[in-house]
Design brief:
single chain; about 170 residues; mainly alpha; two-stranded antiparallel sheet; about 50% helix; about 10% strand; elongated
Amino acid sequence: MSRDQDTVPSHSIKIDNSSCGRVEEFKYFATALTNQNSIQEDIKNRLKSRNACYLSVQNLLSSSLLSRNLKIKIYGTIILPFVLYGCETWSLTLREERRLSVFENKVLRRICGPRRDEVTEWRKLHNDELNEMYSSPNNVRLIKSRRMRWAGHVAHIGEERRVQGFGGET
């Protein structure tokens, strides 16, 4: 994998008597990896998974039988892991940050329901009202804090420590 467009990689890798061909993209533990180290496709796939997960629980999130706190716990334990899987390695663009925020607000609006006012009878909650009701940090801040935590972890490993290979060899 290389970001350098001018390099000419070999078209196959030979291990023992087996040969592995070159591919443009492959999945590894539900993460899309490309030959250009682009994470855009991975983020796009995460957003698709998030939507599928949301659709599977949207009836629970709008149910009047469940409390708001329980609905927020459902969001945090079922939907959020789909969104944030592998986010420590993401470098988000403003467009992706906006898409994550829009989705989060959509889910929170479903959880909180409409608000009744004296002037306009029923209305959707505004973003600032959602932020006041939902005390946890938003998705974008959570991703940034996880990236910083991961960077700190990698920095503390140091050069004297080697990564273990398969079978225990270094």
